[in-house]
Specification:
Helix content: under 10%
Shape: globular
Order of helices and strands: EEEEEEEEEEEEEEEEEEEE
Number of helices: 0
């Protein structure tokens, strides 16, 4: 039986979006249009959470929302995260297993990992100090097996690392400079260890697979002009339910 993932494409300039499906054969279809003005125009990052939820983050306001997306791609159940709750320097936000979130700040190469529960409460913050990350990562995707892919458009390279239950990052596999194209502006992981790369300048993409050894293969090309060129954020939805893990710090601070 063919299974499909849903992906939300968001365009900041018009506050618009679409939800598209991608099947096991990497074919895109079943598009639901979300009209201009449906979204705020200042979201700078978002990521899919378990239970078909999405976390939107605004760097300018240091706030956000969490909403749900139903089977008909209607957005509802909005929980506001007040302005000032987050730092203002996060350039990427990505969901990990166990309903954890990684926030990455390019300017200082820093980050935090926090948890988000079923009620959209954020807690359990682990600080990753400045200088822990490179400062040129332009996109990040959470993979299966508690792995994270970091991509640099300036170098066309990346790394895959692991993150354990205590939010320690290790097991780095380097993806050499030049291994990737340099025009990818968004990446997101979909089911079966696949990654969708989107390039805004040409409205093009590729879908590839990544195995347990962090080898990338099975590339499906999505030609220029297949996508709109105004998408500023792209993230897959996550229908599967996951639950917070226990045993981490109970610090009740926001990222």
């Amino acid at each position: 039986m063919t299974m499909s993932d849903r992906i939300l494409f968001y365009g900041k300039s018009q506050g618009r979006g679409v939800v598209a499906e991608i099947d096991d054969g990497n074919h895109l279809g079943d598009i639901t249009v979300i009209p201009p003005g449906s979204f705020a125009k200042d979201w700078t990052a978002f990521t899919g959470l378990s239970g078909d939820r999405l976390l939107f983050y605004s760097a300018s306001r240091a706030g956000g929302v969490v909403c749900s997306v139903d089977d008909d791609n209607n957005i509802a159940d909005v929980t506001l995260i007040p302005n000032g709750s987050f730092a203002t320097d996060w350039t990427e936000v990505i969901a990990l297993s166990g309903d954890r979130l990684l926030f990455y700040g390019k300017s200082q190469g820093r980050g935090v990992v926090c948890s988000i529960d079923d009620g959209n409460n954020i807690a359990d913050v682990t600080v990753i100090p400045p200088g822990s990350f490179a400062k040129d990562w332009t996109e990040i995707a959470g993979l299966s097996g508690d792995r994270i892919l970091f991509y640099s458009a300036t170098r066309g390279g990346g790394v895959v690392c692991s993150i354990d239950d205590d939010n320690n990052i290790a097991d780095v596999t380097v993806i050499p400079n030049g291994a990737f194209a340099k025009d990818w502006t968004q990446i997101t992981a979909v089911s079966n260890d696949r990654i969708l790369f989107y390039g805004k300048s040409q409205g093009r993409g590729v879908v590839c697979s990544i195995d347990d050894g962090n080898n990338i293969a099975d590339v499906t090309v999505i030609p220029p002009g297949s996508f709109a060129t105004d998408w500023t954020e792209v993230s897959a939805l996550r229908p599967q339910e996951s639950h917070l893990r226990v045993g981490r710090s109970a610090e009740m601070h926001h990222a």
